[in-house]
Amino acid sequence: MTKLPLFNPICGIRPAKGMAREVIAPPYDVLDSKEARRLAAGKPHSFLHVSKAEIDLPEGTDVYSEAVYRKAAENFRKMLDGGVLVREKKPCYYVYRLKMGAHVQTGLMVGACVDDYDSNRIRKHEFTRPVKEDDRVNQIRFVQAQTGPALLAYKQVPEVDAVIRAKVGEPPEFSVEGTGGVVHTLWVLERESDIRTITEAFERQKAVYIADGHHRSAASSRIKKLMVSVRGAEHTGAEPYNCCLAAAFPVDEMKIWDYNRVVRDLNGMEPGVFLSRLGESFSVSRTAGRAKPSARREFGMYLNKEWYMLKPSVPTPSGKEDPVPALDVSVLSDLVLDRLLGIKDLRKSDRVDFVGGIRGLEELERRVDSGEMKAAFALYPTSLDELMAVADNGQVMPPKSTWFEPKLADGLVSNPLL
């Protein structure tokens, strides 16, 4: 039985020459059905017809119904048969660059070994939700391809850096602007010497880390088990379904944004009383402008059209023994959301919501000023070092601890199961 290395080249399915601009789409999980229907209007080749296939069915269709997955498979096959998408003739890696404003990150599209996910060499930091995991399993099963990559982070590998640097000096396969002004550029890396260098270099690495895409990764593991049971004696261990489609980037090029909190009420307290109670654990100071944290253990708060900066005045965990309680998101939950507001479970409570930092502090103001929310809390971004420490410790982070931008594109590269 073949044991695959950590990273593997794949016979990817990608947009044909000149079709990338029409095909690529935002990730399936950042849009609702209404947004997807609007973005795909007049765009018959948009990958949203695969990743959000309910847009081609009557409004109100259950997004988890079998009809949606069947429609996704039908649309994917049409794009292949019509030459909108093409499959590589031999396994390749892909160099993938994302550019958002001044921020640039360049990495690889790969097939990440499912066995290494199962053994935690591909390290996790989040729980998955069964309904979302089932959704990805069904999508892959019907379409017969993994159509959305997981986002992985790896510590710098000099040999890989050298291959990428050389490749980006060549003309790309395509470079197109997606939603939000993000430019997606792809190079096909097919030289055998480069493929061997990348494969061998990553096989020497102790671990890589899931930054985003836990449900995609878990679904790929389940799909492998399903395919093994279906194929029986024909299974060799080298088939494409033994890999999870992933976009992997060096840690020092990735950007984590703050993931902020808004709360619907003050647990029965008047604002003045709440401010007084905050003073038991924080130094609280009103600011002239928006209170954007510039370091760990700083928290901005928006309440009654005023911004405040909060800094703990009581001891907080160091993280030496357990990295999770030392996260800023954990400190805020412990000292404010749980202790003062009685919000015990962030996964289940409808009294708290989360706002990605890409939207800015003005979005926090809007949510509170509209009357929808009572107060907002701005956090300093979780670092990748913190994420890796939690994953190395075999633990999970609190919900909504990290927000990665720029987002990957769907439809860029897909990994067929066979």
Can you tag this structure with a few keywords?
418 residues; 13 helices; six-stranded antiparallel β-sheet; nine-stranded mixed β-sheet; 21 strands; Conserved hypothetical protein from pyrococcus furiosus pfu- 392566-001, domain 2; 2 domains; globular
Walk me through this protein's architecture:
By secondary structure, this protein is α+β, with helices and mostly antiparallel strands. The chain folds into 2 domains: 7-255, no CATH class; 259-380, Conserved hypothetical protein from pyrococcus furiosus pfu- 392566-001, domain 2 (2-Layer Sandwich). 31% of the residues lie in helices and 23% in strands. The strands form 5 sheets. Strands 1, 4, 5, 6, 8, 9, 10, 11 and 12 form a 9-stranded mixed β-sheet that branches. Strands 15-17-16-19-14-18 form a 6-stranded antiparallel β-sheet, with helices on both faces. Strands 2-3 form a two-stranded antiparallel sheet. A hairpin with a 2-residue loop joins strand 16 (299-303) and strand 17. Helix 6 (130-143) packs across helix 9 (214-231). The protein starts with 6 loop residues before the first strand and ends with a strand. The mean pLDDT is 96.
What is the number of beta strands?
Answer: 21
Gross morphology is globular
Radius of gyration: 23 Å
Give the N-terminus to C-terminus distance in angstroms: 17 Å
Largest sheet descriptor: 9 strands, mixed
Summarize model confidence as the mean pLDDT.
Answer: 96
Per DSSP, the total helix count is 13
Total of domains: 2
Per DSSP, what share of the residues sits in E-state strands of 2 or more residues?
15-25%
Oligomer: single chain
Q: What class do helices, strands and sheet pairing give?
A: alpha+beta
Q: Provide the low-confidence segments as ranges.
A: none
Helix content: 25-40%
